[in-house]
């Protein structure tokens, strides 16, 4: 594998003393797990925040070898990770993507949709502007993986309908793509729902 192009950081975990294994979503190669030297260091740690858009160069000598990646920051979501609602949204959609997609299988529509959703989360004045796009991304992910879901698109600001759709889609996510990782990944989704509920309660 030799690939260079835009990628969305979806997750990473420590490896050895200073490196990380990053999970990067790309349009052409799909989800890629790659070794990033120095990923825990001062320079690269803020680059590898989930939700960040990076320019990635990925190389491996064979299909069985873990690829090596070099990454350069293109767009940071870091400024929004200190805000409870955007942070919860970013954490959930990146965790969902990392946990449910098979590696090295391209899903260009999901790449474009996730990039658009992350932009919506960071530019919308409140969660009202990205709640419905988040549901649409979940439905698209289920359909791209071969799981149909009957979910009528609610109107923006119709919170009873949004919560109803959110709960129905959540059951499908827990049953199918997240069946083996339900507890830890779905916990991030529960935080989104809780913070949406607080938003409505504050109105």
TrEMBL record:
Q: What's in the GO CC field?
A: bacterial nucleoid
What keywords is this UniProt entry annotated with? DNA damage, DNA recombination, DNA repair
GO BP field: DNA recombination; double-strand break repair
Q: Which Pfam families match?
A: RecO_C (PF02565), RecO_N (PF11967)
All copies of the DNA replication/recombination mediator RecO N-terminal domain together span 1-68
Q: Give the family this protein belongs to, as stated in its UniProt record.
A: Belongs to the RecO family.
Protein name per UniProt:
DNA repair protein RecO
* Species assigned in the record: Novosphingobium chloroacetimidivorans
